[in-house]
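wait is this the right file?? whatever heres the structure
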């Protein structure tokens, strides 16, 4: 399985192994791998530069290359205080995510453009990982709804969120961890588009998602809505209908 993963990645990215660090990067980045690693080391040494959910997002700017987003692997739940960014295994999650995202992007699904992944081996089977995408202008769905906006604009975006999820499900892509942090509202000029972020642990099935997996997606997203907006100040029945999350009471 590892062999097929690496063969697929090597057909789309340049691979370099520098010391204990394993990199898959787009060609234009591969030529600047030393600079990428230098910036990454600076980021790792400065917690103030990490943003977003779990302080997992930072930005990389190299001359002549559009700005990039780097997301470091960060654990949630009870285990996070002990091993917040350390993972076990010989099939790094960032490499698997890169393969899934590349397949999704090649099918014109609403995901951010993947440009690489970096794994730092601390010991055999023990690693830290980083995943890179092309930076888009905009904000996460949760950030988007925090600002005062016309009701019609919110509902229109919620319908786009549902449409983006429907696209993924028809293509057989099961996300596993849909939250309000994992949808991104772009703002290219006057147009807005919704992308789905964080394909860590996502997988493709052989056919459109079964009703069982669609229901899991729905319940996971609804759980995020209830957690972040328990008083239903934003996500009332009408909003939930637009998202496809309405529950009869």
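ok assuming it is, sequence goes like this
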């Amino acid at each position: 399985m590892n062999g097929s993963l690496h063969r697929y990645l090597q057909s789309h990215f340049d691979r370099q192994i520098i010391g204990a660090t394993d990199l898959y990067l787009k060609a234009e980045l591969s030529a600047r791998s030393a600079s990428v690693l230098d910036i990454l080391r600076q980021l790792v040494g400065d917690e103030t530069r990490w943003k977003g959910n779990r302080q997992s997002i930072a930005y990389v700017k190299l001359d002549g290359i559009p700005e990039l987003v780097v997301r470091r692997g960060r654990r949630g739940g009870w285990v996070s205080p002990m091993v917040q960014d350390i993972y076990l295994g010989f099939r790094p999650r960032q490499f698997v995510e890169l393969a899934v995202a590349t397949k999704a992007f090649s099918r014109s699904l609403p995901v951010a453009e993947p440009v690489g992944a970096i794994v730092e081996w601390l010991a055999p089977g023990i690693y830290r990982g980083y995943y890179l995408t092309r930076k888009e202008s905009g904000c996460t769905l949760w950030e988007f709804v925090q600002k005062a906006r016309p009701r019609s604009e919110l509902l229109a975006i919620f319908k786009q969120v549902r449409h983006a999820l429907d696209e993924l499900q028809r293509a057989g892509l099961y996300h596993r961890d849909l939250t309000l942090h994992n949808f991104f509202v772009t703002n290219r000029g006057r147009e807005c588009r919704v992308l789905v972020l964080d394909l860590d642990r996502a997988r493709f099935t052989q056919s459109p998602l079964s009703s069982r997996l669609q229901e899991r997606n729905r319940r996971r997203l609804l759980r995020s809505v209830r957690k972040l907006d328990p008083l239903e100040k934003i996500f009332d029945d009408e909003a939930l209908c637009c998202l496809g999350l309405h529950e009869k009471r």
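The chain has a mean pLDDT of 91. so i think its the right one actually
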